[in-house]
Automatic annotation (TrEMBL):
InterPro entries: Dxylulose-5-P_synthase, THDP-binding, Transketo_C/PFOR_II, Transketolase-like_Pyr-bd, Transketolase_BS, Transketolase_C. PROSITE patterns: TRANSKETOLASE_2. Coiled coil: none annotated. This is 1-deoxy-D-xylulose-5-phosphate synthase. Catalyzes the acyloin condensation reaction between C atoms 2 and 3 of pyruvate and glyceraldehyde 3-phosphate to yield 1-deoxy-D-xylulose-5-phosphate (DXP). Residues 320-485 form the Transketolase-like pyrimidine-binding domain. It comes from Sphingomonas psychrolutea.
Amino acid sequence: MVDVLTTPLLDTVQLPSDLRALAPTQLRQLADELRQETIAAVGVTGGHLGSGLGVVELTVAIHYVFDTPNDKLVWDVGHQCYPHKILTGRRDRIRTLRMGGGLSGFTKRSESEYDPFGAAHSSTSISASLGFAIANKIAGKPGKGIAVIGDGAMSAGMAYEAMNNAAQAGNRLVVILNDNDMSIAPPVGGLSAYLSRIVSSREFLGFRDLARKLAKHLPKPIAAGMRKTDEFARGIAMGGTLFEELGFYYVGPIDGHNLDQLIPVLENVRDAEEGPILVHVVTKKGKGYGPAEAAADKYHGVQKFDVISGVQSKAPPGPPQYQNVFGAQLSKEAESDPTICAITAAMPSGTGLDAFSKAHPDRFFDVGIAEQHAVTFAAGLAAQGMRPFCAIYSTFLQRAYDQVVHDVCIQNLPVRFAIDRAGLVGADGATHAGSFDVTYLATLPNMVVMAPADEAELVHMTHTAVLHDSGPIAIRYPRGNGTGVELPAQAQQLEIGKGRIVRLGHKVAILSLGTRLGEALKAAEALEARGLSTTVADLRFAKPLDEDLIRKLLTTHEVAVTIEEAAVGGLGAHVLTFASDDGLIDAGLKLRTLRLPDIFQDQDKPEVQYAQAGLDADAIVETVLKALRHNSGTVAEGARA
Ligand SMILES: Cc1ncc(C[n+]2csc(CCOP(=O)(O)OP(=O)(O)O)c2C)c(N)n1
Ligand SMILES: CC(=O)[C@@H](O)[C@H](O)COP(=O)(O)O
Ligand SMILES: [Mg+2]
């Protein structure tokens, strides 16, 4: 398919300036070619496909009508930006999307002047666009802020905080609501129902001057007929919506795949004297690619696939994914415990809660993209005697930090946090890396922080969290497959703050938290081969620390190394603090901490990322040898230079 792909018109477009030189009648062909190129590229790379396919026409129309990059176009989340990347000078690298050294899967300021604002977490686009608009207004410079935000992203509080504050931008702010009636999963909640009502009823609630102006650019037969009647307002501009109440001129709903409508409407919006304006565009996620349109998830995120059949490449069968081990165990626990509830913020399958949602629909809550609400909602449930599990990716929980501190920890409420995608995540890169949760959670009074070394440990920790009613507790675990250990028939309740010795030695101690345990054991083998007898401990808890175990290890070994899949300020920092407070380093112990580096790592394969981070077996060995060399000037036989 890639070989037979012909894109004669797209081949002439390197930049939006080339696009603007085309006749309006050529835009349909351009959009068709752009769609084919997007499909072909993602077939090779994998990635976020459905959202991009839904905004092909919108992408063409925005760049055709607006003066990008002087007008600042901000894509919310940024997962729909592949067609935009193709039209903005990056087509030659589009088949490197999400690969090490390749293009980011999201918008990124360092990549292009056409990406004025980086994203990947949702619902930031209106605030950022407002910032651009107001900055230009103050400086007396031309240039609008244009936010394209999906119906899913529109469920988050930030979007409303921004709209509430947008009036001063006037006509410099344009918000394009891309309503495809989908989030990653089908959208939930009152806002989604409201948008559906607007689209289906098109009820007339009054229209303003803008409607008259819109007519100027509409194709004649439509404009002439509509201008006279309410039909115009029903079809194109409709007042009285929630958005108007918030101070926006509302334009819509518009068919987002019909360039003959999109172009004149956007031209009117561009030229309007009033504002801010919200354009409600209706699109189809996965548009124009049969397998995507037919799929339940609309090919939101895909593996590499065969373009003709749409069949995605499958990873060879392997151990279960952590998310599913968690989801299955929680669902099982909920069979005998009617107080268990599960909450997701728009990630029901990513967090493994699909099974729970089917088995216990009354106790499953998808709150939409609303992490802050998810946490405080869980706090309320906990305060009323329920056992809520808030399953949120590490990176997205960052957004709800004050809720964790203020609503959960200060009140010591037993909210259970199932923190998925902890550690480095691969192709999604720095925005999605779960680097900081150990740091930001283990510093909080009352909080317990656990990290399983494998999927069997995750079963035990899930069970332990269920039974932990005395305060908040978190389990952090990574993206991807477990290690292949046998899953326990019976989950055990772990003693809070107690680790375990996995391998006993006497010279070097490796203190591991989480799934680096495998690398720690490999390193121990390598050290043993060099004559350095090595203990490996799985600490299980970053908070509370197993002080007895740590004291014992630090006073009976010559070198101690902590390792974790987390940034500075986590396990290593807590062990160092304890060791210093307890006088454990006074006698000359060589204590080292291995953690994520103080940089934002770009996308790559996780194993490459961890090697870059210095968190693999080689790095552990090197650290130990360096510590010994530093002390004695010599190292055991076979040591690397
Ligand atoms: C704060 C935050 N929470 C969750 C996500 C995960 N996420 C990425 S895209 C998406 C759905 C977005 O839906 P919508 O805005 O309607 O865009 P569509 O994919 O439908 O084009 C979600 C939940 C995220 N990126 N950011
Ligand atoms: C864009 C976005 O935020 C999600 O689609 C994310 O990429 C999903 O990540 P996982 O593949 O780890 O579920
Ligand atoms: Mg959507």
